[in-house]
Design a protein that fits this description.
There is one protein chain. The chain is α+β, with helices and mostly antiparallel strands and 180 residues long. The protein has one domain: tt1808, chain A, CATH 3.90.1570. The protein has four helices and 13 strands. The protein has a six-stranded mixed beta sheet with strand order 3-6-8-9-10-11. β4 and β5 form a beta hairpin.
Length: 180
Amino acid sequence: MSKIVLTYEDFAQLPDDGNRYELHEGELSVTPSPGARHQLVIGNLHLILAPHVRASGRGEIFLSPFDCIMTNITVVEPDLIYLDETRLGLLSERAIEGAPTLAIEVLSPHSIRIDRRRKLDLYARHDVTWYWIVDPVGRTIDAHRLEGGAYRIVATLEGETARALPPFTDLPLDPAAVWR
């Protein structure tokens, strides 16, 4: 029995039914829409990061849902996507076509295994330089940096003390603003 490999063209035909669809190396990944806590944290991070990025002229921040087409068989929708100024050329009318500078995933009950394992490997294989895993329950953000084809945690936001996370080393994140 042969495995069916889906492409971006197949992906574009999927229904708008409230589920979140992605293609992971041609395999369809489906998760239900995230809950309220997940959406609040994404909104808070966007409100913190977007003005900083725009004011500095260092690229753009995009809020999901927005396709990131890594290849014709790998299409993801990170919760937040950062393109630094060197990668703005990847932006097309339909999507980001290539690896972003930073992918941010906020964990939800349905996405924990996907975000911590599958996407960690997937983003590394496609050369996403930075990957943040945001845990609203544990109130942590782990900043991973791609080094030698694998990620390593280089900084963590936890507790109540503000801390800058790379690649935004000049922007201390206030935990009270992130988790409120």
